[in-house]
Every structure is written in C-alpha cells, then in structure tokens.
Design goal:
With 156 residues, the chain is mainly beta. The chain has a single domain (8-107, 145-155), classed as OB fold (Dihydrolipoamide Acetyltransferase, E2P) (Beta Barrel). It has helices spanning 62-65, 142-155, and strands at residues 8-14, 19-23, 27-32, 46-52, 55-60, 78-83, 93-98, 103-107, 112-116, 126-132, 138-140. The strands form three sheets. A five-stranded mixed beta sheet has the order 3-6-7-5-4. It has a three-stranded antiparallel beta sheet with strand order 2-1-8, with no helix packed on it. The protein has a three-stranded antiparallel beta sheet with strand order 9-10-11. Strand 4 and strand 5 (55-60) form a beta hairpin. The N and C termini lie far apart (53 Å).
C-alpha cells in the first residue's frame, strides 16, 4: 500500500445558515446571480430558470428544498452550476443559490467524519451532516435534488 493519503478536492458552499460540501468535479461553474424567470405554480424552492451559456438552467434554493425560508439575494449571491448525472433533466445541468463564494478544500478520511443522518425533513435532498475539523457541512443528495427539479419541469 502507498503511504499517500487519498484526498478529494471539494467545495464548501455557503448557504444562509449552513454549508454544503460537494466534490469539486460535481460543479461546472459558479456564476453571478441573475434573477430567474419564475414558472407559475412552482414550489417556492424552485427559483425559476436563468440563461446559462445559451441554455435554460433551472435554479433551486437549497434552503427552500429543506422547508426553510428562501434567503434574500444580496450582492454576494451566486449560482453554483452542477452537472446533472441522472439524465432526468434535459438541460444537463442545474443551479443552486449560494450566499457567497464557494471555498475549495481538500478532504480525506482523517478530517471528515459522519456527524448525523437526521435533522431535516425525510424527503429533503440531504444524505448526511459531516464533521470536518470545526465545520459541520451537509452532504447534499444531488440525485434527489435533480429528481425534484425534473418533477417541477414536468409540471410546468
């Protein structure tokens, strides 16, 4: 066995009252916030769609998907563009609002530990909360969030 520690480049994505941690490879780009075009009858967490590289990009509020209030946008609000991996979204990507710039971090098994799998609604797009030194970020269930967005698109 090699003495090297396996590390994963990840992004800490700031939300209004929390942070997400995701592998860097899941993210296509971080773009400045532009007001999404909202669909009538959509859930409050579904912000609408923005034009991204000539394509329609569905944008969600992660806080809203957890059943919390959708945060007010500020000058620091950005949209994190994720790769859609399940094939449920014909756009191939989707966006999540962030309340600041994501931070690049390297993680390994020595600094990342399971903290809890509870504390959010059962249907929320969250896998678990982890402990990372003095942070307690959420690991999102991006496949579930993608499925939620696909259902919204079908109802529109």
């Amino acid at each position: 066995m090699s003495g090297e520690t396996e590390e994963l480049y990840s992004l800490l994505i700031p939300l209004a009252e929390d942070r997400l941690i995701v592998p860097r490879a899941c993210v296509a780009e971080v773009v400045r916030f532009t007001a999404p075009e909202q669909e009538a009858g959509a859930h409050s967490w579904m912000m609408g769609s923005v034009n991204w590289n000539g394509r329609s990009l569905p944008v969600a509020s992660f806080e809203g998907a957890l059943g919390k209030d959708v945060p007010v946008t500020t000058g620091r609000t950005r949209i994190v563009v994720f790769h859609a991996h399940t094939g449920q979204l014909n756009t191939g990507h989707f966006g999540v609002l962030t309340q600041g710039f994501p931070q690049l971090v390297r993680v390994n098994k020595d600094v990342l530990q399971l903290h809890t799998t509870e504390g959010w609604p059962k249907d929320a797009p969250v896998l678990c909360r982890v402990k990372m030194i003095n942070e307690f970020p959420l690991i999102p269930d991006l496949e579930k969030l993608e499925a939620m967005l696909a259902r919204e698109a079908m109802q529109a």
